[in-house]
Design a protein that fits this description.
Keywords: Lysosome, Membrane, Transmembrane, Transmembrane helix, Transport
Largest sheet: none
Helix content: over 70%
Protein name: Lysosomal dipeptide transporter MFSD1
Number of helices: 10
Number of domains: 3
Distance between the termini: 47 Å
Membrane topology: Multi-pass membrane protein
Radius of gyration: 20 Å
Family: Belongs to the major facilitator superfamily.
Subcellular location: Lysosome membrane
Number of strands: 0
Mean pLDDT: 77
Oligomer: single chain
Length: about 210
């Protein structure tokens, strides 16, 4: 990990290890590259937050088709939250001391992906317990992935830039939460999922 950091510092400083002529998007010392990194960082949490709020958008369908009450339905969010009471701390420790930021991000992203697949399989096979297990696995990676996202932010941006970066990351997360509800309502209403309809519904829904 120390070798990776030294190599990155050499590239940023334009040292002897840095290539002489790189396209702007491939040169870590150029603004275009850092903006690309910022875009990817914002999308890192987009899918996670989009999947996180899927159950809320389909609450009435879950309760009707799977014959569950509100208390049992809310267990989907409880199973997500319980592991994160302690795992955020351990997730940060694992990123710092064990996996490193790259492998930590990949591993926690895999937990998010696998958890959502298991959750979807529970819906296909009408097995609510499997959906709960999927949300638990999803929770193992969800908030720790946010820790990795913040680690990337402070690694690539310094000083006053961090305020803008954290703000954009939060905005993308809220767009994801809004998108899942708006897309579901457009589907139920039978309207076309055009950008104009999406924006109109996002502004008018409460």
């Amino acid at each position: 990990m120390e070798e990776e950091e030294e190599e990155a510092r050499a590239l940023l400083a334009g040292g002897p290890g840095a290539p002489s002529a790189l396209p702007a998007l491939c040169d870590p010392g150029r603004l275009a590259h850092r903006l690309l990194v910022l875009l990817l960082m914002c999308f890192l949490g987009f899918g996670s937050y989009f999947c996180y709020d899927n159950p809320a958008a389909l609450q009435s369908q879950f309760k009707r088709d799977m014959q569950v009450n509100t208390t049992k339905f809310m267990l989907l969010y409880a199973w997500y939250s319980w592991p994160n009471v302690v795992l955020c701390f351990f997730g940060g420790f694992l990123i710092d001391r064990v996996f490193g930021i790259r492998w930590g991000t990949i591993i926690f992203s895999c937990f998010v992906c696998i958890g959502q697949v298991v959750f979807a399989l529970g819906g296909i096979f009408n097995a609510f317990w499997l959906m709960e297990f999927g949300r638990f696995v999803f929770g193992i990676g969800g908030e720790s992935l946010a820790v990795a996202q913040n680690t990337y932010a402070v690694s690539w941006f310094k000083g006053k830039e961090l305020n803008l970066v954290f703000g954009l990351q939060l905005s993308m997360a809220r767009i994801a939460l809004r998108a899942v509800r708006s897309d579901w309502k457009l589907a139920v209403m039978g309207g076309p999922s055009s950008p104009a309809n999406f924006v109109e519904l996002s502004l008018t829904q409460r």
